[in-house]
Amino acid sequence: MAEAVVKKIYPERAETAEAKTKAESPASRATEIDRLKQKLPTSRRDRVRWFLFGLLPIALIAGGLWYILGGAIMSTDDAYVDAEKVGISTDVAGIVQTVEVKDNEHVDAGQVLYRLDPRQFQIALDSAKANLAQIALNVDAMKQDYQHMLSDAAAAQAQVDLDQLNFNRQDMLIKTGNTPQAVYDQAKYTLANDQSKLESLQQQAKVQLAKLGGDPNTPTDKLPQYSQAQAQLDEAQRQLDHAVVKAPFSGTAASVPSIAPGKYLAASATAFYLVDNDHVWITANPKETELTYVRTGQSATISIDSYPGVTWNGAIESVSPAAAQEFSLLPAQNTSGNWVKVVQRVPMRVRVDTSDKNKPPLRAGMSATVDVDTGHRRGFPHFW
After folding, report:
1. What is the pLDDT of residues 94-134, one digit of tens each?
2. Which residues contact 300 (CB under 8 A, 6 or more apart)?
3. Which of 17, 45, 177, 314 lies 20 to 30 Å from 29 when distance is taken between CA atoms?
4. How many domains does the chain have?
5. Is residue 163 part of a domain?
């Protein structure tokens, strides 16, 4: 009703609104788009379409070749730089006297790292030296005593021989009745008594000879008691030497502030650490499913996260005979009822070529990526 009134009163406005409504309808917009498409050159659309169709087989062929010829590189980023590192300690207990190195300082093999107070070790060494000297004197005295025992035994033997002559004489006289019985008994007693003394002296000489190793001419330093005293002296000297702790190899000292002069260190207590910078390797932990074609000696390329764009050459040095979880304190109980299969990781050691001194230094613990060239190609799928 209102539209009819508007058309009668304002016919021009009504025609304009109606035309605007038709132009905004979806059918009108679709018709306009088709009209614009028809204005585009037909040859251009065809060229784009045929170009894309031509790229499709090339992409399929390239993808197939990539799959067939690929798969030779085994890559893992579960890898870290490793190096020889040892906790510096000594097998003697004592008080730290001086610390000869600083934290993160490079040291050479044999360089003094720290010293313990040597007084207690020097006292023990002096005591061992005195004991060794006393043993040497005792051995010389034993040899002299042995010679004296031999002399006493020879004198006793002469006395026994004399007593034997007297007893034989009295034995002949007693048979003829030309000597009293008391004289005969005295001669018999004297002979038995001197024989007993001779046996005692001979036994003492044998005991003394046994202490001398069965040979009175044995050198003093060959006797067991002397060797024992010499061993005690050597042990005291060793402890004194170990009071001065030296670097077992060249490297960098770490965590040195953990000790200071005056601190008591128990035997075998770690003072600080020494890390070898010259001999480093990569410890990688690839999945067991990635080790199918990995073999010892295969070449590898190492990338360090700290040095983008820089690579190192290397080779597979060894592969662990067991998965890492086999060495854990609580290994997985695969026979339990709640068992869940988990892909295990097997440690792998990669040798690194560090001959190029122009490359940045490798530090233990750095994250790395290892790419191993296994030389294996995927080939065609099995169902082909």
Report:
1. 999 999 999 999 999 999 999 999 999 999 999 999 999 99
2. 313, 314, 315, 316, 350, 370, 371, 372, 373
3. 45
4. 4
5. yes
Residue 378 lies in a domain: no
Tokens read off for 123: 């006292």
Q: Is 79 helix (H, G, I), strand (E, B) or coil?
A: strand
Burial class (CB in 10 A: 0-12, 13-18, 19+), 124: middle
> What sections of the chain are H helices per DSSP?
2-9, 11-24, 26-39, 42-69, 119-176, 181-211, 224-242
The packing angle between helices 26-39 and 11-24, to 10°, is 70
The reply to whether 150 and 170 lie within a common domain is yes
Total-model pTM: 0.65
Question: Is residue 260 one of the residues assigned to a domain?
Answer: yes
Render pLDDT for 5-32 as a digit per residue (tens, 0 to 9). Answer: 444 454 555 455 454 554 455 555 556 6
| Among 244, 223, 202, CA closest to 92 | 244
What dihedral angle (degrees, nearest 10) is formed by the CA atoms of 70, 71, 72, 77? Answer: 130
* Phi and psi torsions of 78, nearest 5°: -85, 70
Q: Are residues 231 and 125 in the same domain?
A: yes
Q: Which domain holds residue 26?
A: 2-69
- Widest Cα–Cα separation across the chain: 200
The token pair that represents 99 in the structure block: 């610390």
279, β-bridge pairs: none
111 and 248 both lie in a single domain: yes
Sheet holding 244-246, edge to edge: 244-246, 112-116, 94-99, 264-265
Token pair listed for 163:
């007593």
Residue 101 lies in a domain: yes
Whole-angstrom Cα distance, residue 151 to residue 124?
Answer: 41
